[in-house]
Design goal:
There is one protein chain. This protein has 111 residues and is of the alpha+beta class. Helix content is 50%, strand content 16%. The chain is built from 2 helices and 3 strands. It has a 3-stranded antiparallel sheet with strand order 1-2-3. α1 packs antiparallel against α2. It is rod-shaped.
């Protein structure tokens, strides 16, 4: 019974259920995703998954200097942070695609 002023609650419920399913699907896709970050011109590469877990770290032996461990630590940290930033940005983009204008509203899923 719509008089033109009241929203159709059944339609709203169907939209909400579809949105919930779409969000869940994207979250599952993101959990399987991996992004790489590099530091030192590619001398250190870190791979982070969609759950922000470090999956791999590759270190070129030329940056392994026992006299400068601090530099290697900094490169590893920078590579991990770069990979995490890529995952975060990708997550935001994919969620924005699903959520549309509702992305970022209080109570809505986001990253």
């Amino acid at each position: 019974m719509s008089n033109g002023k009241m929203p159709d609650l059944n339609a709203l419920m169907k939209q909400a259920q579809k949105l919930q399913g779409d969000v869940q699907k994207v979250q599952e896709e993101l959990a399987q995703m991996e992004c790489e970050g590099q530091a030192g011109g590619g001398m250190v590469t870190a791979t982070v998954n969609g759950q922000f877990e470090v999956v791999r770290v590759k270190i070129d032996k030329s940056v392994v200097d026992p006299n400068d461990v601090g530099m290697l630590e900094d490169l590893v940290t920078a590579a991990i942070n770069a990979a995490a930033t890529k995952i975060r940005e990708t997550s935001k983009e994919k969620m924005a695609e699903v959520m549309g204008p509702m992305a970022g509203l209080p109570g809505m899923p986001g990253f």
